[in-house]
Write a structure and sequence with these properties.
- By secondary structure, the chain is mostly beta strands.
- The protein has two domains: 1-35, Single Sheet (Ubiquitin Ligase Nedd4, Chain: W); 38-172, Nucleoside Triphosphate Pyrophosphohydrolase (Alpha-Beta Complex).
- The chain contains two helices and eleven strands; from the N terminus they run βββββββαβββαβ.
- Helix content is 14%, strand content 38%.
Length: 180
């Protein structure tokens, strides 16, 4: 952050009185700018025991496969966001099920939340997608999955095999090894 969104003056990184962390603070109007993680929501859409994946047409990781997911918008629930992202990326309607995976992507300042989803009807290709396809478990292109959080969600979904095993939690940091 370089400029104050309230008055347009330069901001500086410092610890406001009574706070425990450095924040962006405007010396001109004394506004403290808090930066919080962004929420990414998605689902694992399934039809007849096959999982719908999308091949990304945008960066990052253009050309790689992913479950439909994206940033939560203001004014929607996390389940509504997961359904909207599936519609936008795969032109597919889903009946959103339960939340089953949460991934803290600490270095990116994001939290990724994944739901189960029942594919209702057909699917297609959205503006951010090159192609979509249904994959049986044995057909999933694991080496071509775009993001570690999506790979984690797919693995946990398959491990659950339709059972409600709660919400699987995972933390991703650049400087730590991961078994995902």
């Amino acid at each position: 952050m370089k400029y104050c969104s309230s008055c347009g003056s330069l901001v500086a990184r410092k610890k406001p009185a009574g706070d425990s962390r450095d924040r962006w603070v405007c010396d001109n109007c004394n506004t403290t700018h808090y930066q919080n993680p962004n929420i990414v929501v998605g689902c694992v859409p399934v039809q007849e025991q096959k999982i719908l994946l999308c091949r990304r047409a945008i960066e990052p990781r253009s050309g790689f496969w992913t479950v439909p997911a994206g940033f939560l918008e203001l004014g929607e629930t996390i389940a509504e966001g997961a359904a909207r992202e599936t519609l936008e990326e795969a032109c597919a309607m889903v009946r959103v099920g339960r939340l089953f995976a949460s991934v803290d992507v600490v270095d990116a300042g994001q939290v990724h939340l994944f739901f189960t989803g029942e594919l209702i009807g057909g699917f297609g290709v959205g503006e951010e997608t090159l192609e979509t396809a249904l994959f049986a478990e044995s057909e999933i292109p694991w080496d071509e999955i775009a993001f570690r959080s999506g790979r984690f969600a797919l693995r946990k979904y398959l491990e659950d095999a339709g059972r409600n095993n709660g919400v699987h939690l995972h933390e991703l940091r650049r400087n730590r090894q991961s078994n995902d």
